[in-house]
Specification:
Blueprint lengths: L2 H7 L2 E4 L6 E3 L19 H14 L4 E4 L8 H6 L4 E5 L11 H8 L3 E8 L9 E8 L6 H25 L9
Parallel strand pairs: 3-4
Antiparallel strand pairs: 1-2, 1-3, 4-5, 5-6
């Protein structure tokens, strides 16, 4: 059971506590939810409902997002409250948002890291489940630092998901 292999191939993965891993590629789901069509006609509410409906149809218990890069609206959080996980390449609450690694370097931090948290309507603001720190090296670039963060993040995510599965879906916050 290696969850990150699934996560790296799909925009969003549903983890069912009963069957352990069900991956849904929204690119192929009924052909009606397509990644990357975020032009002027993109309807975030409709998209959110399509994603939510796909997860409900597949009886998903836990959602693990990684590199999804799309903000979902209220309907999914209503139906999957406290059951959507996300990763972030910083030690939240520092450097929320899409440019966390670049901002950490610009700010001059000596240590950054990664966070696994519960996704909420407010981006990168949900309860923190796990974090791990990573030193910033003097010759780090955005690319080298991000790659080192992703290496740690992948294992931290798997460990966090495995803890949730081992406790029959009970989510405990890191204190």
């Amino acid at each position: 059971f290696v969850i990150y292999e699934c996560i790296s191939h799909f925009a969003c993965v549903g983890i069912s506590v009963e069957i352990f891993s069900v991956a849904i590629s929204f690119n192929s789901y009924k052909g009606d939810v397509v990644m990357g069509c975020y032009g002027k006609d993109f309807d975030r509410d409709t998209y959110t409902c399509e994603v939510r409906d796909a997860l409900i149809d597949h009886e998903i218990d836990l959602i693990a997002m990684a590199g999804f890069g799309t903000i979902l609206n209220k309907p999914i959080y209503d139906d999957f409250s406290n059951r959507i996980l996300n990763t972030h390449p910083s030690l939240l609450p520092s450097f929320p948002g899409w440019h966390a690694v670049e901002e950490a370097l610009e700010y001059g931090v000596k240590v950054t890291g990664c966070t696994v948290h519960i996704a909420t309507e407010e981006v990168d603001a949900g309860p923190i489940l796990a974090q791990e720190s990573i030193p910033v090296l003097k010759d780090d670039t955005k690319e080298t630092l991000h790659e080192r963060i992703k290496t740690v993040e992948r294992q931290l995510y798997v460990d966090t998901i495995n803890k949730i599965i081992a406790t029959n879906g009970q989510i405990e916050r890191d204190q």
